[in-house]
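tool=predict chain=A
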Amino acid sequence: MTTEQGHPATNGKAVAPPPGDAPRGVQGWALRNGVERALRVQQPLVSGHIANIRRKHPTATPAEVITALGKQYQVAVTVTGGAGGALAIIPALGTIASLATASAEALAALNAAVLYTLAVAEVHAMPTDDPERRRALVLGVVVGETGQAVVRKMTGKTGDWAQVVTDTLPLAKLGPLNSGLTRWFLKRFLVRQGSLALGRALPLGIGLVIGAVGNYVTAKAVIRSAEHAFGAPPAQWP
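tool=predict ok
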């Protein structure tokens, strides 16, 4: 039995097919380093990011802060995607410049997704100090539905799985979980960002729209994935 997407199903639930080999060579190396750097660099920024929102909105509830985090994330990546597409408007050199900046824009979007996910974890008072648990949490959210399927297989939870990953999942399971999530992330990231890069390079302002809308849609997907992973926000601050 298969799902509509052609994936095998078990008891009516889609199960992710094996991801196969992750991208190798320079691209694979660069992406792995990009992920590790994003996880390392964004972690110290989380508390200040949340504090900044709470200073502006002192009475904001955890749910309202998470909503604000999502809006900031969407704005950041939408502007980044639109900026790359805007370069393509420039006659002759625009398309080349847009393609040349594609990697930087992709990494900027990745960093924004990592900061958003870790900030939501902070609001939920979930620990993210351990590098392996932090990696599993972020990749599980960013990879999307496929990541959810991989996490579900390891944790046995269909939703609200973030607490298990950050707190109680045995270390023996974290290694295989991170390996699977990393393979999926690298393959999907290359395909998605490659498509967006080509779209952003289109001239006559088309690239601007594709870049902005493409990044916005991707951010919406990450936010939905985070809602599924974390569950309902806390009713009040600890």
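The chain has one domain: 22-230. Confidence is low (pLDDT under 50) at residues 1-23, 93-100.
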